[in-house]
C-alpha cells in the first residue's frame, strides 16, 4: 500500500448555539450574504471539499421563552447555497434539510436544481425529527413516532433517488431541427406508493451533474448509524477525539459490508474546532479565553437549569453550585435542541463534588464539562494531529467549526492547510469539478425500475 | 387600518413599470428552436445570468420566474423546470437594481418554507425579492405530493389567501431591531421583539416566529396573477402587483378599475397596487419582419397564444401601445413576455426603453436599491411593532 489516504475538509458556517461567539468585536453578521460569501470563498481558495450550512425549523426555547443568549435566526439553507453557487466555482455546497417537514417531490427538485445551478456541487445533510414542538410550524405537525423517523427518512431518500433517476443524463435533446425538446423515452414516470409517501408522475427537473447530490447523515443513534451505512455518502460525526473517533469509525464502517458497500464509499467526518497559537501554551490560553466567551454567566446558569429542571436565576454564576436538588419530575425546560441527562440527581452530585474539589464556580464547572476537545496547538501540531486521525482511521477528515463569523477559520486556511499541502496530504488544486470528485465518490448511474410496466415512457 | 400613502405622493406623473418574464426560452413554445436560441443552455445558470444583466441594463423593474410541480405536457415546447426560488437566489449576487420575482406554490409548499425562502432571497439580494403567488389545482400536482386530493380553483385560492396572510405575518414576526447583541446582559436578541404568529386556520396552523429575521424590504412585494374573479379578490387584498391578461386597453382599464375598487373595499389604498398587463411580444425592425418572425415560430409550433395582448410589430409601435394604455389609465405597466428571450429582450432594451425614456415615461436610473423603491411602494410598517 503506497497510496496515501486523502484528507477531506469542510467548513461549517457558525450556528445558533454557544460555540458561536457573537459578543466578540470581530463577530460579523449571521444573516448578511457577505458573511456566507467570505467563509465560502476563503474555504474555496484553500481548496476545501465543501461549505456546510445547518438548519433548525423552530427558534429554540428555554423556560417557555425564546432562548436569547445564543445567536438567534438564520436564513433559509438552500437559497443561501444557490446564491453561493454564483460566487464560487468548485467548492461543494452542503445543506441540512429535514425529512419530516419536507416532501420528497419538492426537496428532490430543490437539490436537483442546486446541483444544476452549481455545476454538480450539491449535498444534502439529511436529518430527521419527531417533535411536535418543531411540527407546530407545519401542516404535518408532530405526528411522526420517534421510531418512524428513519423509516420515513429511508422512504424519502428512496423516492428522491427514483425521481433523480427518472431523467436520463442526456434527456435534453437540444436539436433545433427536432420537434421534441426531450429525447423520447428519456424521462420516465415515477409511481411510488409507500408507507409514508405517495409520489406519482413525471418529474420536472433535469438530473444534475452528480446524478445524485451527495448525501450526508448526522444522526448518532443506532438507527442513524445503520441508515448511514445503508444510504449515506458522508457521516457528519460528533466523535472528534481520537479514541472516540476510532470506535465510531470502526462501528460505522463495519456496517457497510452487510449492504455490499466498499469501506471507501462512506466518508466519516467529525465536526471539530481548531484553536491555534505560536506556542502550545499560547494556543491553550486562547482556547481558555474562547471558552469563557462561549460560556457567559447567564449561559452557564441556563445550562445548569437544563439539568436541574428548574429556575436557577437567583444563583450567582461566579458562586458555588446550587444546593437545591434537581426537579426530576419536571419536563424538559429547553426545547428545539438535543440534550439528554439520564439521571439528574447523580449528575448534580458528581458535579458538586468536582466543583468542590477544584474550587470551581458554576461557570468554571460548565466550561469544564462542556469542553469537547477540538484541536488546540501550533499549526504544525494541529496539522500533524489531523493527519494522524485520518491515517489511523479515527476519521476521513473533518468539518471545521469556527467560533467567529465569518473570519474564524482564516488562520486555519492561512497556517494549517498550507502545511497539509506541503506534506502532500491535502490537495493543492481541485482535481475535478463536482463534490463527488472532491470526495472520491462514484457517480451513480441511472437506476431504471425493473418493472418496465411501471416505468411508462413519457419523454 | 390603511396607512396614508406616501408612495403615491412621491410619484410624479405616469411612470411605466416593466417586468420581463424569463420563463423557458421565451413565451412562444417554439422559442427554443428559433434562431439564436441554444436549447442545450435552457437550464444553464450563465444563460439566466446574462438575461438578467440584459434586463437590468434596460432598468426593467423585475424579472419573473415561473414554476410548477408538473412537467409541461406539450411535446413541442420546452419541458423541464428548475426551482424558481433557487434560481432567483442564484441570480442575486450577480445582479443589482433589478427585482427577482420567484413563483412559489401555496397549495403544496408549507407556508413556513415559502416565507423563509422569499425572505432569504430578499437578504441575499439586499432587498430585491418578490414573490409570485401560485396555487395548484391539477390532479398531477396532487399526485406528486400524495397528501391531499386535487382542489378546485376557488378552494386553492382561498388557501393561497390564508397562506399569503400567514407568510406576511411571518415576515413581520421579527421586528427590524430585534437583534441587539447586548454584551452587558448576554442577550443576542430582544425577545419582546420576536412574535409568535399563532395562526390556527382551517387548513393549517403555524406557530412562528420565523427562523429568518425580517427581510430588508419588510415584506417583499407580492405578485398575484389575476386568472379570474377569485384571483382578482386575492390580488385586491394581498398583492402589491397584479398581473392581468387583457387584449385591449378597454379590457385592461376595466380590470384595473375593478382591482382598485376591490382594494378600497379591502381597506387598502388603491395607489399601493400596481396593475401590470401581460404582453407577448414579437419584435422586428419593421412590421413585415416582425410578422415573418411570428409566422416562422407559428410554422414550427402552431401555438395558441393566451387571451392577453400580443404585440407583433416594431419596438416603436410597442412604445406607442405602452404609452397609450398607461396614459389612458388602463395599466400601470406591463410584464413583457418576449416570444424568444434570445431575440426580443434585446429589442426591448435597445429600442423600446429609450423611446419610453424620451417620452418621460420610464426611469433613467433605478430610484433606489430595493424592488419596493423601483415599484414606488413604501416599506410597510410591522404589524407587531408597538412603538408609537
From TrEMBL, chain A:
Pfam families: Bac_luciferase
GO molecular function terms listed in the Swiss-Prot or TrEMBL record: monooxygenase activity
Keywords carried by this UniProt record: Flavoprotein, FMN, Monooxygenase, Oxidoreductase
Every Luciferase-like domain range: 24-392
UniProt-listed Enzyme Commission number(s): 1.14.-.-
InterPro entries: Diverse_substr_monoxygenases (IPR051260), Luciferase-like_dom (IPR011251), Luciferase-like_sf (IPR036661), NTA_MOA (IPR016215)
The family this protein is said to belong to: Belongs to the NtaA/SnaA/DszA monooxygenase family.
NCBIfam families noted in UniProt: FMN_nitrolo (TIGR03860)
Name used for this protein in its record: NtaA/DmoA family FMN-dependent monooxygenase
Organism from which the protein derives: Cellulomonas alba
Automatic annotation (TrEMBL), chain B:
Ranges in coiled-coil conformation: none
All copies of domain Luciferase-like, residue ranges: 37-308
Superkingdom as given in the UniProt entry: Bacteria
Signal peptide: none
UniProt-listed Pfam families: Bac_luciferase
Record keywords: Flavoprotein, FMN, Monooxygenase, Oxidoreductase
Protein family per UniProt: Belongs to the NtaA/SnaA/DszA monooxygenase family.
Protein's UniProt name: LLM class flavin-dependent oxidoreductase
Amino acid at each position: 500500500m503506497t497510496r496515501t489516504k486523502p484528507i477531506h475538509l469542510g467548513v461549517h458556517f457558525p450556528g445558533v448555539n454557544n460555540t458561536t461567539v457573537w459578543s466578540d468585536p470581530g463577530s460579523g453578521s449571521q444573516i448578511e450574504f457577505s458573511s456566507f460569501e467570505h467563509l465560502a470563498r476563503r474555504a474555496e481558495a484553500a481548496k476545501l471539499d465543501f461549505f456546510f450550512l445547518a438548519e433548525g425549523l423552530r427558534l429554540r426555547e428555554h423556560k417557555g421563552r425564546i432562548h436569547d443568549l445564543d445567536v438567534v435566526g438564520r436564513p433559509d439553507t438552500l437559497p443561501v447555497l444557490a446564491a453561493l453557487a454564483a460566487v464560487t466555482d468548485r467548492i461543494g455546497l452542503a445543506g441540512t434539510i429535514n425529512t419530516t417537514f419536507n416532501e420528497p417531490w419538492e426537496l428532490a427538485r430543490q437539490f436537483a436544481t442546486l446541483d444544476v445551478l452549481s455545476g454538480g456541487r450539491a449535498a444534502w445533510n439529511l436529518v430527521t425529527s419527531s417533535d411536535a414542538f418543531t411540527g407546530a410550524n407545519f401542516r404535518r405537525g408532530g405526528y411522526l413516532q420517534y421510531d418512524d423517523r428513519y423509516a420515513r427518512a429511508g422512504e424519502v431518500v428512496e423516492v428522491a433517488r427514483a425521481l433523480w433517476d427518472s431523467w436520463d443524463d442526456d434527456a435534453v435533446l437540444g436539436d433545433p431541427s427536432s420537434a421534441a425538446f426531450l429525447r423520447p423515452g428519456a424521462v420516465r414516470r415515477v409511481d411510488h406508493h409507500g408507507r409514508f409517501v405517495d409520489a406519482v408522475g413525471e418529474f420536472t427537473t433535469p438530473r444534475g451533474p452528480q446524478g445524485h447530490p451527495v448525501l450526508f447523515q448526522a444522526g448518532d443513534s443506532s438507527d442513524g448509524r445503520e441508515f448511514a451505512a445503508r444510504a449515506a455518502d458522508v457521516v457528519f460525526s460528533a466523535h472528534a477525539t481520537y479514541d472516540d473517533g476510532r470506535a465510531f469509525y470502526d462501528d460505522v464502517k463495519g456496517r457497510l459490508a452487510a449492504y455490499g458497500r466498499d469501506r471507501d464509499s462512506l466518508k466519516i467526518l467529525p465536526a471539530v474546532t481548531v484553536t491555534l497559537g505560536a506556542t502550545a501554551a499560547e494556543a491553550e490560553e486562547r482556547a481558555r479565553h474562547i471558552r469563557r466567551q462561549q460560556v457567559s454567566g447567564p449561559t452557564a446558569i441556563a445550562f445548569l437549569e437544563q439539568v436541574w429542571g428548574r429556575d436557577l436565576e437567583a444563583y450567582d454564576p461566579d458562586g458555588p453550585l446550587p444546593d437545591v436538588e434537581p426537579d426530576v419530575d419536571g419536563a424538559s425546560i429547553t426545547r428545539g435542541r438535543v440534550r439528554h441527562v439520564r439521571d439528574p440527581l447523580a449528575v448534580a452530585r458528581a458535579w458538586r463534588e468536582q466543583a468542590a474539589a477544584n474550587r470551581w464556580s458554576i461557570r468554571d464547572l460548565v466550561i469544564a464539562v462542556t469542553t469537547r476537545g477540538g484541536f488546540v496547538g501550533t499549526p504544525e501540531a494541529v496539522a500533524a494531529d489531523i493527519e494522524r486521525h485520518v491515517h489511523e482511521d479515527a476519521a476521513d477528515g473533518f468539518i471545521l467549526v469556527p467560533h467567529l463569523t465569518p473570519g474564524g477559520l482564516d488562520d486555519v486556511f492561512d497556517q494549517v492547510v498550507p502545511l497539509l499541502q506541503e506534506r502532500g496530504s491535502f490537495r493543492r488544486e481541485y482535481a475535478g469539478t463536482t463534490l463527488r470528485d472532491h470526495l472520491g465518490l462514484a457517480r451513480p448511474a441511472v437506476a431504471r425500475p425493473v418493472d418496465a410496466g411501471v416505468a411508462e415512457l413519457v419523454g | 387600518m390603511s396607512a396614508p400613502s406616501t408612495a403615491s405622493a412621491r410619484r410624479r406623473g405616469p411612470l411605466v413599470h416593466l417586468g420581463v418574464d424569463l420563463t423557458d426560452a421565451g413565451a412562444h413554445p417554439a422559442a427554443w428552436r428559433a434562431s439564436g436560441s441554444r436549447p442545450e443552455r435552457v437550464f444553464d445558470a450563465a444563460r439566466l445570468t446574462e438575461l438578467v444583466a440584459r434586463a437590468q441594463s434596460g432598468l426593467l423593474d423585475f424579472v419573473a420566474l415561473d414554476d410548477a410541480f408538473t412537467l409541461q405536457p406539450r411535446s413541442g415546447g420546452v419541458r423541464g423546470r428548475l426551482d424558481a426560488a433557487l434560481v432567483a437566489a442564484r441570480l442575486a449576487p450577480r445582479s443589482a437594481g433589478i427585482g427577482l420575482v420567484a413563483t412559489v406554490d401555496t397549495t403544496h409548499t408549507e407556508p413556513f418554507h415559502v416565507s423563509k425562502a422569499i425572505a432569504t432571497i430578499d437578504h441575499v439580494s439586499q432587498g430585491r425579492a418578490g414573490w409570485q403567488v401560485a396555487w395548484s389545482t391539477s390532479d398531477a400536482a396532487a399526485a406528486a405530493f400524495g397528501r391531499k386530493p386535487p382542489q378546485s380553483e376557488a378552494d386553492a385560492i382561498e388557501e393561497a389567501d390564508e397562506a399569503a396572510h400567514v407568510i406576511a405575518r411571518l415576515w413581520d414576526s421579527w421586528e427590524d431591531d430585534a437583534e441587539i447583541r447586548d454584551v452587558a446582559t448576554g442577550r443576542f436578541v430582544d425577545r419582546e421583539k420576536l412574535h409568535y404568529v399563532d395562526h390556527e386556520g382551517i387548513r393549517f396552523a403555524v406557530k412562528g416566529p420565523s427562523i429568518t429575521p425580517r427581510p430588508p424590504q419588510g415584506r417583499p412585494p407580492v405578485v398575484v396573477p389575476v386568472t379570474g374573479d377569485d384571483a382578482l379578490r386575492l390580488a385586491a387584498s394581498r398583492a402589491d402587483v397584479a398581473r392581468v391578461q387583457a387584449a385591449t386597453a378597454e379590457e385592461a382599464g376595466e380590470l384595473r378599475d375593478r382591482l382598485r375598487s376591490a382594494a378600497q373595499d379591502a381597506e387598502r389604498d388603491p395607489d399601493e397596487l400596481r396593475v401590470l398587463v401581460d404582453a407577448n411580444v414579437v419584435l422586428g425592425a419593421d412590421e413585415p419582419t416582425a410578422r415573418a418572425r411570428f409566422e416562422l415560430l407559428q410554422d414550427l409550433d402552431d401555438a395558441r397564444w393566451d387571451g392577453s395582448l400580443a404585440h407583433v410589430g416594431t419596438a416603436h409601435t410597442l412604445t406607442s401601445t405602452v404609452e397609450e394604455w398607461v396614459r389612458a389609465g388602463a395599466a400601470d405597466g406591463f410584464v413583457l413576455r418576449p416570444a424568444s428571450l434570445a431575440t426580443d429582450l434585446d429589442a426591448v432594451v435597445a429600442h423600446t426603453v429609450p423611446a419610453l425614456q424620451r417620452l418621460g415615461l420610464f426611469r433613467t436610473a433605478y430610484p433606489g436599491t430595493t424592488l419596493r423603491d423601483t415599484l414606488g411602494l413604501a416599506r410597510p410598517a410591522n404589524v407587531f411593532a408597538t412603538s408609537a
